[in-house]
Design goal:
Distance between the termini: 12 Å
Strand content: 35-45%
Oligomer: single chain
CATH architecture: Roll
CATH superfamily: Ribonuclease P/MRP, subunit p29
Helix content: under 10%
Shape: globular
Order of helices and strands: EEEEEEH
Length: 95
């Protein structure tokens, strides 16, 4: 399955450039960098000086695809174990 704006929540996020567009915590706004880690509830963004762990729930992210297209995703759509979220078979709400 190719990486498109519609399929982004089903894909591996590590390696994509991301930015916090909106969120419940105003201190997180504007954080940006490359996604280097992902857990069930957080994304780790590598900035210029350190990795910042941003909660998925209550946050809106902008991801830049390799084509240069910017995709906005509500973090609540990403809350799941990465392996479960990206699976292609079984009972998954992402299919």
């Amino acid at each position: 399955m190719p990486l498109t704006p519609e399929t982004l929540p089903r894909h591996e996020l590590v390696g994509l450039d991301a930015r916090v567009r909106a969120g419940a915590n105003p201190d997180l706004l504007g954080i940006e960098g490359c996604v280097v880690t992902e857990t069930t509830k957080t994304l780790g963004l590598q900035g210029a000086d350190r990795v910042r762990h941003v909660p998925k729930e209550g946050t809106t992210f902008e991801f830049t695809l390799s084509s240069g297209e910017v995709v906005t995703v509500e973090g609540r759509r990403l809350v799941a174990r990465p392996a479960r979220r990206t699976e292609k078979s079984g009972d998954s709400k992402w299919r």
